[in-house]
Amino acid sequence: MNARAATTATTQAKTHARTAARELLRARMQPITELAELGTAVDTARAHLDDARQRWRAAQTAYAHAYRAARAAGWSPTELHDIGCGTQPAGTALRTTRPDSDSDTAATDAGHTVHETGPR
């Protein structure tokens, strides 16, 4: 084999090795690429969930204040329900839910578990 043929064979072997390595890496990269994309999607969804929970808590507090104002103005729970103004909020108007709870609707009131009901 002459020098030129040896150089060509070496170049072809390197090209083949690189191509094979790229294919192996591509197969290995696909799962981690998808994992990284899904991780970003989970983080984004979690941020949206946290924002929604904050808005929900703020709405619950505002609803409880408005409900108490309606009651102070002389409306009974039955009247409020009958005219479609929702249900009586559970517990105190400013109660906060436990942030570590999987169910953000559960809170404690006088040692008992209660559930926020809000408007329906």
What is the fold's blueprint, element by element?
Elements: H1 3-72, H2 77-82, E1 106-109, E2 112-115
Fold and architecture overview:
The chain has one domain. It is 63% helix and 7% strand. The protein contains two helices and two strands. The chain has helices at residues 3-72, 77-82; strands spanning 106-109, 112-115. A two-stranded antiparallel sheet has the order 1-2. A hairpin with a 2-residue loop joins strand 1 (106-109) and strand 2 (112-115). The protein starts with a helix and ends in a 5-residue tail after the last strand.
Alpha carbon gyration radius: 32 Å
Low-confidence stretches: 96-120
What's the story with the biggest beta sheet?
2 strands, antiparallel
Could you say which structural class the secondary elements and strand pairing correspond to? mainly alpha
Topology as a string of helices (H) and strands (E): HHEE
User: How many domain units?
Assistant: 1
Q: N- to C-terminal separation?
A: 88 Å
What number is the mean pLDDT?
78
Q: What share of residues are in beta strands? A: 5-15%
Q: Biggest sheet: strands side by side, in what order? A: 1-2
Tally of contiguous helical segments: 2
* DSSP E strands, number: 2
From the spread of the alpha carbons, the general shape counts as: rod-shaped
Helix content: 55-70%
Key features?
two-stranded antiparallel ribbon, mainly alpha, 120 residues
Give a quick rundown of the structure.
The protein has helices at 3-72, 77-82; strands spanning 106-109, 112-115. It is mainly alpha-helical and 120 residues long.
